[in-house]
Amino acid sequence: MSCDGSTPRRLDAIGQASSIAVNNHVYEMKAAGHDVITLSLGEAFFDLPSLAHPLSDGADLHHYTHSRGVPLLREKLAAYYREQCRVPVDPEREIIVTAGSKAAIFMALFAVVEPGDEVLVLEPLWVSYPDQIRLAGGTPVAVPYDVPVDGLEDYVTARTRAIVVNNPQNPSGRLMDMDEMRELHRLAETYGLTLIADEAYNEFVPLDHEFRSLGALDPEKKHTIVCNSMSKNYGISGWRVGYLIARPALTDQILKLQQHVITCAPSVLCHFLAENFETLLAVTRPQILEAVSLRNRMRKTLSAAGVETLPGNSTFYLFAQVGDGYRSGEEFARDLLRQHSVSVVPGVGYGSSCADFIRISVGTEPEARVVEGIDRIIAVATHGEKGFGSSICSEQ
Ligand code: PMP
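# 4'-deoxy-4'-aminopyridoxal-5'-phosphate complex -> structure
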């Protein structure tokens, strides 16, 4: 901050992460004693084994690690991507463990975007992509949610440098198919673009569906950077552990950013994760399937009541169209929280084509409270049609 109190202009263009801002408000309401049915948090809660880690054994646990990440954790993550996602990964040179995948995505963008470059992001987009692109000096180009992947080429210009793809997608829960992935790689090859694949929810797919990594179609990683996270699949968002996979020359560049900004991911947690990698996943996988199943049952409930959601069968999110031309998703979310004590995230944070939507997460409340929350959403969305918004507002 300068002596007149102003901040640099590049920060004026940046907003708060809308989902996090909503959840800060919910944390404060709960701390003040309000009972809020929380359908706004971007994670799923699991029963996890207690941390029986010998924290006092081995001084290494308490200190910096190799800035690429604890070697055993890199090996485990490389094996995971090789076996589960068909992406060959050299744990020595092609992976960096970071402080959450948010840092991984930002560093990936910072490493590929030149000032003035355009980066395509597909709506509904994850709330941090546009501002991370701006912070990296680029210009986000948002593609409206009703444009299919084979319409993306119309958005490519001479300045386009990268496409960010979230698969499965927060907030719609959509899983990409192989044709869409092939088209993305065709665009990358034709126009010299980098694909930044955010695969943070890759375990959250129904049993009869298979997750395919975008990285599997580019095994040499000529134009693909894969980012992933322990936050969602392992249910440990607060640990702040994520990772990225890229070709060696690119990880060498990104490593410089990591060394100057983060040094390394939290050591003690990474050691614990490396030791318990398979055990933890064995514990979370059945619970992940339950979360996905609950999501899909709630989708049917909403649909039967006339509240439509964007197509998708994965993750624990639903992106529901509630705006009626009279009340926006933002107003709907505000009324829902104030009048009915249910928190959701307004859709506008996921792109300007999404202003009529709200994001619902079924990941953190017990099923009975999720059902109650969905019932209240349906009541607000369907009660009284036009004019209900004004009666809600006049109650205040
Ligand atoms: N990508 C997506 C699509 C997300 O939803 C999130 C968190 N909500 C992240 C990345 C970042 O997760 P983390 O930093 O906890 O790994």
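# post-check
DSSP finds twelve helices and twelve strands in the chain.
Residues 42, 100-102, 126, 166, 170, 198, 200, 229, 231, 237, 242 surround 4'-deoxy-4'-aminopyridoxal-5'-phosphate (CB under 6 Å).
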